[in-house]
Design goal:
Length: 389
């Protein structure tokens, strides 16, 4: 690879990081108070679970976009779907400022997730290609750091704006980073319009060649997402239990994103050295976070913030080493489809887990604790099988 090409791919890598930074300001800022906002609109507990189905919807669209892009095997299709996805992902969020019913707010959260679903697997394929020289673990780690800087800034901005002006102005203030993000992704496309990994093979869709290791990996991650409590549940119940105020919930989410950012590069570098062994971190941190969350009504505010930090460690694993793992267990021509399958299963199981938690958290803390232990320990046990597959 020539020096000029390397510089160009590195610039595209940085632009994609800046896209994620500004995009995360928008949707993570809005999601940080999603459950609390729905509760403030008199939504019932099940409404937080309904809002979380946006992730399922998003992951269904990840699968759809991956299948379409794999069939077309076209750089233009990859970039086109990615850009449209970002537009839907970002430009519907500010409309939350004009809602006055919980079901309209929930619908907007659902629409936003579909846009994220469309663009994520294809963006990850592009990212895997432009980070090949530096190491995929490190590349995804640096990208996640930039991503999480936005995820920190967004909730902080929303928390300040809610305190000063209320929800409407807080959501409308997210328009600026939304437009900046769209400018960055357009610039990345103009600099790097042709993707080598996309055009390696003729257009086709085939599930052959994904391999046993990939399916064991998917099963382990499915159990992890079943036991990893969704932030919509967390933010709803922190308000429902009167553990934190609305602005404090946004700050707790900021703590989660700060932790996510702090571990992104170190865990990515570690992954490049020891590969799948780093995946053990995710079920461990998810289990600790979930147990602390379940008992925050009696343990108090400091524990709620500690829980948020551990929740962020798990999310950091999802956004770095798990994305890098997909690229390492599959050949290049299978990556888009692999990301789509992974996203679909992850979305289904995380949504199912969200509904389960919305019910059992009202029934018994002991049942919720046992559920978390069973799912997350089982996930950890399967990771060893990924190593030897």
């Amino acid at each position: 690879m020539s020096l000029i090409v390397r510089r160009k791919t590195f610039l595209v890598f940085i632009l994609l990081g800046l896209v994620s930074l500004t995009a995360d300001m928008v949707y993570e800022g809005a999601r940080s108070v999603g459950g609390a906002y729905i509760e403030s609109l008199n939504g019932p507990p099940i409404a937080s679970a309904i809002a979380s189905t946006g992730d399922l919807l998003g992951y269904v669209f990840r699968f759809i976009s991956a299948v379409i892009a794999s069939y077309l095997a076209s750089s233009a299709a990859f970039w086109g779907i990615t850009i449209v996805g970002y537009a839907i992902n970002l430009l519907f969020i500010p409309f939350l400022g004009f809602t006055n019913t919980w079901y309209i707010a929930t619908a907007l959260y659902l629409v936003e997730r579909t846009g994220r679903g469309l663009r994520t697997p294809l963006r990850d394929v592009i990212l895997a290609e432009v980070s090949e020289d530096m190491g995929k673990g490190k590349g995804f780690g640096i990208h996640e750091l930039l991503d999480q800087l936005g995820a920190i800034a967004g909730p902080l901005l929303v928390s300040i704006m809610i305190t000063l002006y209320g929800y409407r102005i807080a959501f409308l203030s997210l328009l600026a980073p939304a437009f900046i993000s769209m400018s960055f992704v357009t610039a990345a496309y103009m600099l790097y319009p042709r993707l080598k990994s996309v055009e390696l093979s003729p257009p086709k869709i085939s599930f052959r060649g994904l391999g046993r290791g990939f399916y064991i990996y998917i099963l382990s991650m499915a159990l992890l997402s079943l036991g990893y409590v969704h932030w919509m549940n967390v933010s709803y119940f922190l308000k429902y239990w009167n553990t934190l105020t609305d602005s404090e919930i946004a700050l707790a989410y900021m703590v989660a994103m700060l932790t996510d950012a702090a571990i992104a590069i170190p865990i990515g570098v570690l992954y490049d050295k020891v590969k799948f062994k780093t995946l053990y971190i995710a079920p461990t941190s998810a289990l600790l976070a979930t147990i602390l969350f379940i008992y925050t009504p009696t343990l108090g505010k400091p524990i709620a913030y500690a829980m948020a930090g551990l929740w962020g460690v798990t999310m950091g694993c999802f956004e770095t080493i798990m994305r890098a793992s997909i690229a390492d267990v599959l050949p290049q021509e299978k990556r888009a489809l692999g990301y789509g399958v992974y996203g679909l299963i992850y979305g289904i199981t995380w949504t199912v887990g969200s509904f389960i938690y919305s019910y059992i958290l009202l029934v018994s803390s002991i049942i919720a604790t046992l559920y978390a232990i069973i799912t997350l320990v089982a996930s950890a046990l399967l990771i060893r099988q990924i190593n030897i597959s």
